[in-house]
Amino acid sequence: MKFSEFLDVRDGTHDSPKRVNIGKKLITTKNLEDNRIDFTNAKNISLNDFKRINERSKVDQFDILLSMIGTVGNVYQERSAFPDYAIKNLALLKFHGDELLSNWMNYYLQSKKGQSKIHQRLSGSTQQYISLTDLRNIEITLPNRDQMELCIKPLRYLDDLILKNNQINDNLVKLVDSYFINFLNNVTTVEKTIEDIGTVVGGGTPSKKIADYWNGDIAWVTPKDLSQHPLIFTSSGENYITGLGLAKGSAKLLPTNTILFSSRAPIGYISIAKNNLATNQGFKSVIPNKEYSFQFIYELLKHETAAIKNEANGSTFKEISGKKLKQHIINIPNSEDTSKFNEITKPIFKQLRKLEEENEELLAIKKGLLEKYF
Predict the structure, then answer these.
(1) What's the Cα-to-Cα distance from 326 to each of 63, 113, 259, 261, 262, rounded to whole Å?
(2) Do 189-333 and 3-142 have the same topology in CATH?
(3) CA neighbours within 13 Å on the CB side: how many for 179?
(4) What CATH class has 3-142?
(5) What is the per-residue pLDDT across 34-76, written as a single tens digit (0 to 9) for each?
(6) Could you tell me the sign of the dihedral formed by the alpha carbons of 69, 70, 75, 80, in that order?
């Protein structure tokens, strides 16, 4: 059956409503990640624009959003009874309250088979996309509802465990963020620079023309990797390089607990290296000096991101240079006070890492089940 034969397939607005300071959220491809929406950088639009968009493209409970352009194929199922956002340039699969069919389609679209169906119909050379017509014409074999129920049950159980871990981690992150701000406000600080607390290291890309530089065993991370898999601790990206690629290129091997800080397109993705790895030139990473913990520098860079962005240059896209990041002025406490911060936050970061690793194991099980059922 074609999607159009059993689904109501629409898309969001193609207009560009004006940004307002306070309003309703407009969700686009850049805000859509697998199984979640990132509202933090979503544009605010007026109530009138919100109502106008939702006359045709209102998202309801159990509807599914699918990215159609650029990064094609990210899937999000709306579980909330009262979604409060509008969408632009996203496919909207409406189920009109049919939770079972929505659950089955949610997992089908996440599966390798479902993703393959989507990517077979991509168009565009500079920027790939799938048209609404092509999406409606995708053909699949639909099982009966009893069969749907059988395969959904274990997958929902895994997703519930993953969601629970994510909620705990979100709360722990808020706890640390709040404690860090309170900590800085209640200790005496001195003026220093980023260079005083760590070594700033740029990344690089080995030549793509030389096959011997690629598909090795050294993890090589890009800002895109962090955008697709936003984790506090990062162990790898989509690609790996060889020792020869590392030696012949400008990439550097960064030690465990280095703070990865994206310096362009966009500025401000932050993660902690879980193991030795390398990055492309989209990062200016900070290797902590021995008297400063990775958790302190991680929180400090989060706290300073807005100020760092203000020091960036560039017309097409903003970039912070290694020199400017090194010279960025910060106010930090003395080493004795910093040690107290480290003692309190160390077990929290240990728990954050543990839950992220548990989710990686659950996702691996889920991947196996998706391949089995679909």
Answers:
(1) 47, 47, 14, 12, 14
(2) yes
(3) 18
(4) alpha beta
(5) 788 989 889 999 999 999 999 999 999 999 999 999 889 999 9
(6) negative
